[in-house]
Amino acid sequence: FFGRQEDPELKGLDTVVEAVRLLVKDGAHLEAQLVVRGVSNALADKLHDDIRRRLGDRPPVRVLPYTEDANAIRDDLLSASVVIVPSREEGYGLVAHEAVEHGVPVVVDARAGFGVLLKEVFGDEASDMIVERLADRSETARRYAGHMASILSDRDGAFRQPVPAANSRRG
To answer: H helices within 12-109, ranges in order?
Structure first.
C-alpha cells in the first residue's frame, strides 16, 4: 500500500487493513505482509501500532516513511506481490501506474482515474484489477480481499495479466 498518508482515511488505509485481516483470517496467505509506504516519520509508529491493533499478530506489518527516492520506491514495488490503491478520491493514481510499469499486479478503485483508464484500455480483461467501492465498507474490503487472494494464489499468472508489455520490465 503506497502513497502519501497525510489522510489515511481518504487513501483507504482502513479498507486495506480490513482486506488484509480477511485475507489471513482463516489461515490462508499467512506469507502475506502489509507494507505501508508514505507516512511521515512523526506518524509512523502510531500508524504501525494502530494497524497492529486491528490485525493482531498476523500478518507482519511494515510502515515506511514517505520518500522521493526513485530507487527505494522501485525496490518496494518490485518486492510486492500486489499493490492495492483503494483511495476514496484519486485524480489519477500514479502509484498504480508505477506498479503496472514494473509488472506488479494492482487492485484499484473503479472511480480512481487509473481504474477508469484500465477499463477503457483493457475492458473486461481489467476486471481482476478493479473494485467497485460500495457504501458498505466491510463489503468493499471483502471485495479487495477476494482480488488479493486471487492474485496471491496465482502470482505467476497475475504478473502476466493484463499488461503483458509491463512484464518485460520486471527484473
So the answer is: 13-25, 41-55, 70-79, 94-101
Residue 130: all three cell numbers together = 478493479
d(CA 133, CA 170): 30
The whole-number pLDDT of residue 4 equals 54
Q: Which of 67, 61, 149, 137 shows the shortest CA–CA distance to 105?
A: 149
Is the whole model's pTM more than 0.85, yes or no?
no
What are the cell numbers at 131? 473494485
Longest dimension (CA), the chain: 42
What letter does residue 154 receive in the DSSP assignment? T
Q: What are the 10-residue block averages of pLDDT along the chain, 171 residues in total?
A: 59 87 78 85 89 86 89 90 83 83 90 89 87 89 91 71 43 43
Q: Find out whether the peptide bond into 60 is cis, omega within 30 degrees of 0.
A: no
pLDDT at residue 108, as a whole number: 92
The count of C-alpha atoms lying within 13 angstroms of the C-alpha of 77, restricted to the half-sphere facing its C-beta, is: 27
Q: Is the Cβ–Cβ distance between 153 and 82 less than 8 Å? A: no
